[in-house]
Amino acid sequence: MTRLLLTLIRLATPRADREFVVGDTVEELERIERTEGAAAARRWLRGELGRVLAAAPRHHLATHARIRRGRHHHRGAPMGSDKMRHQFDWATLVNDLRNAWRGLRAGRGTTALAFVIFTIAIAAGTVTFSVVDAVALRPLPFASPESLVSVSRVSTGDGRTLMPAAPQDYLAWRDRGVAAFETIATSQVGERLRLRADDGESFPLRRVTSNLFDVLGVHPFAGRFFSPEHEQPGHDGVVVLSYELWMRRFGGDPDAIGQHVTFIDFRNQRTLRQIVGVLPPGVTYPILAGPQEPAVYVPYIPSTEDRSYGSLSRSYTSWVVGRLRPGATLDQARTEVEHVSTAIAAEFPPVVPPPAAVTSLHDRVVGPAKSWLLLVLGGVGLVLLVACVNVAGLLLARATVRVRELATREALGASRARLARGFLLEGLILSLAASAAAIAMSFWGLALVKAHLPEGLARTAAIGVDARVLLVSIGVSILCGLTFASAPAWLASRSNLVALTKRGGGVISGRSGSRSFGAFLVAELAFVSLLLVATTLVVASFVLVTTADLGFDRRNVMSIYYTKSLQTVAETSRSAAETTFRADLLDRVRAVPGVTHAALMTSGSLPMLGGLSRYRIEVPGFGETTGDDMLETRMVTPGYFEAMGMQLVHGRTFEASDRAGAPRVALINDVAAQRFFGGQDPVGRVATFQNNSLTIVGVLRSVRFVGPEDDARPELYIPLGQEPAYSNRINSNGNLVVRTAGPAPLLAPAIREVIRTVLDGAEPSQAQFIDDAFRRLTAARRFNAGLMSIFGFVAIAIGAAGIYGTMAFVVAQQVRAIGLRMALGASPGRVMRSVLRDAAWRVVAGLAIGLTCAWAISSAFASLVFGVTPTEPGIYMMVAGIVVLIGLAAAIVPALRAARLDPLVALRTE
Amino acid sequence: MPSVPIPGEFEQLVLLAVLRLDRDAYGATIRREIELRAERELSISAVYTTLERLEQKGLVRSWVGDPTPQRGGRRRKHFALLPLGERALKLAHEAYTGMTAGLEQRLKALR
């Protein structure tokens, strides 16, 4: 221990004083050991090391000044010598810079290659970081955002997606008390408003509790926020504007505050409100996915409905936010929130709210995107590492070629430190130039990425190259520049340069010399293989999601929603009129050229389009279905299954004879058959649906309703015409489902025109295409897979260049040795094999390390993959195959070159 | 004759130690002297840094002694005052005593 500490003190001391400093330290150490004991001496030495380290920079500077002035310059140093020293330093620096520039220009090819590799890596890094930072890393624009908590409900649709709570929930949590919260507030997303009736621009309305901005810790940019009296009916005619709206519509005029302004809602109702304040720039709540729209905020006054905890009429529109009490935890809040919910459910039996979810507000905003954003950031980090190692290898290779120049400079009096500094400067110049080019490139890259960002990301407006991104980008480049330049700098400071020149031009001779290059190659290939495993997992997941069996054919299908008024028809003949209308509509649509199938469907919507409609059934022997067992129910005309491309497993589908008055029939899917009838054949069995007995006539293959990544659920189909009768209907509405021979969007206008004529001119909805919805659902995976593929290809290209460069260099350095071996009888094949063997063990070593690392961290990918396990051996074998193939392909040219050497020529080269 | 540079506070302590130690002034003894008398913790590097500066200003000179057995055979670097150093020290001391004259009681009474 003592020896280590002394060595460290020695290393921290300028060379000129080392002997004396260590001598004095040993002397003092021995004295303390004698007088106070060994323990005290050790303690003292540890402290001394700290003090020496702290004083080391000044000590180095002081001795440096003397060395430059000449050793025995005792007397009469001019005052103001400080200034002179600086001028001297500048001169050295300029000189060194000039040398570095010369060095970079001399090896133009290497410099250009290093510049290109590094620019691409830094640009990719800058673009990726600016996206990840803006969306996921940056703190929210609120005070102490870490103690802000979002309380949501879990959507019953897929049991995963979070949705806002209901107003009743908010009031229950507020009134019944969640002790973990210091305060709790909410904002309701309301309708859209306009300032003028003919205004093209509308903006969202948020109804907020008067304490919302207090809870968020936001102070008004101008004016003031709401106070509790604004929550009294009749006193709520006030409004707070977002900064952006105030700037755009009121020109940022301070006099606008206090003015009364009319707002027009979608029913053309006018409300006069007084502007009381303006929010700071960029502040909004809730922070929703998609473009951030400037909003207007008005006080929220709970309706009677909202105030009755037991109300069954709940709209999940309340974005609840709480601030944790100091010391309170998320878990505590979670338990207490759940406790209140359970108590409410027990008091008001029919109410079964979906489970509550308590998350940090930041997590709620970033959502599930965070994990894949971090994956992408990790991916680009690996690309950067690969580039770094590669450039380090390139510079090292070039430095060894320059060994004669270095030896000459050393002989002329340049210190080793100065030579090493020269290389560091070269690295710095290279990295700064690359960084500038990369930043220019990243503006273009960002535009590209922003155009392809998946939906569902919040805060995308903030994505851009700003000071923070620039700082990180330039900082990382400088760090990388110094890192890769340290390889040749280390060579220059350690090697006996003169001895090296005597060996005939190169450093690399024999096995030991090429070992350092081998290490670079191994590291590079390890990073490449690690990245390739991640890329393959992400791409494989994407392919598996997009090719997953959905249970139907998603291409060329559309649905259009229509409403046919039956008001003019006598109540008794409405049913008949509806049947006629439906038949007429289908006939006309089927007559449109290009339409292959058409059908009608009521309740819910098509798969992937988001509308769910779940009903209970009763099966004798099974009992009534509840909760999770509820069936996804559609009422359809006979052509539906053909239009959707669904498959019948067993029995029959609907026929024209399954009409009103005929025996009631139904179809179920295989999941429902398994769940309610065990292994038995459900065909011919009876189930009760809304007090009607239905005979099951067939079993269908199940459909993934929610999305390609969600499990199939039980389904029930009922013939349209046998659906339960609703009294007092004045409209007949439903979805027209159409399958076309060609792309569906091309036929949509014609079909809407047909519907319009049947509806006597009334407007049907816009067509919805399942394929579009499917693309939206898989957009995040597509974006990920695209980005990771780009990273993977870049890494492979850089890696291949690295293998080629290194092997070509090693061969070039060993020309004489190879010539000698051939002169002594080695066959070209043998020489080639030996070069390939050399490359092969590095490839294998790199692969082994990379794949082991990937295996070790693979559990982090678990939430990001679909259809494969992160430790799937096939993935690893595939990556190994790719890397080996590319490794050998890149090494074959240098190997051939070695094999084709003419021994006579080779032996004559220097 | 170059003008006499005014030594800084720590430089004065080092100069005083060199003066007191006379022929026995080298790194370890100078450091011990300051630690004992001025009661301050310092590193050997700080001592050498200051001596280096004093040497460059022409206040002290140094020479390397013979190897000694008790330091693992390492040599000592000895220091002695040069005339310019003696003058500088004298000027500094005069300035200090001049300023403190008659204040001894009150300075002692300060906390």
Provide an overview of this structure:
The complex is a heterodimer of chains A (910) and B (111). Chain A is an alpha+beta fold. In chain A, the strands form 3 sheets. In chain A, strands 1, 2, 3, 4, 5, 6, 7, 8, 9, 10 and 11 form an 11-stranded mixed beta sheet that branches. The two termini of chain A are 48 Å apart. Chain B is mostly helical and 111 residues long. In chain B, 55% of the residues lie in helices and 9% in strands. Chain B has 5 helices and 2 strands; from the N terminus they run αααββαα. In chain B, α1 (9-21) crosses α4 (83-100). Chain B is globular. The chains are: A alpha+beta (910), B mainly alpha (111). At the A-B interface, α2 and α3 of A face α2 and α3 of B.
Secondary-structure map:
The complex is a heterodimer of chains A (910) and B (111).
Chain A: H1 2-12, H2 18-36, H3 38-69, H4 81-106, H5 108-137, E1 148-154, E2 162-163, H6 167-176, E3 181-193, E4 203-208, H7 212-216, E5 222-223, E6 238-241, H8 243-250, E7 260-264, E8 270-278, E9 296-299, H9 304-307, E10 318-324, H10 330-347, E11 356-360, H11 361-366, H12 369-401, H13 403-411, H14 416-451, H15 467-494, H16 497-502, H17 510-513, H18 515-546, E12 557-565, H19 574-590, E13 595-602, E14 614-615, E15 618-619, E16 623-624, E17 631-636, H20 640-644, E18 648-651, E19 665-669, H21 670-677, E20 686-689, E21 692-700, E22 715-719, E23 731-740, H22 744-758, E24 768-769, H23 770-777, H24 779-813, H25 815-823, H26 828-857, H27 873-899, H28 903-908
Parallel strand pairs in A: 4-9, 6-8, 17-22, 19-21
Antiparallel strand pairs in A: 1-2, 1-10, 1-11, 3-4, 3-10, 5-8, 6-9, 7-8, 12-23, 12-24, 13-17, 13-23, 14-17, 15-16, 18-21, 19-22, 20-21
Helix pairs in contact in A: 1-2, 1-3, 2-3, 4-14, 5-12, 5-14, 5-15, 6-10, 12-15, 12-18, 12-24, 14-15, 18-24, 18-26, 18-27, 19-22, 24-27, 26-27
Chain B: H1 9-21, H2 27-37, H3 44-56, E1 60-64, E2 77-81, H4 83-100, H5 104-109
Antiparallel strand pairs in B: 1-2
Helix pairs in contact in B: 1-2, 1-4
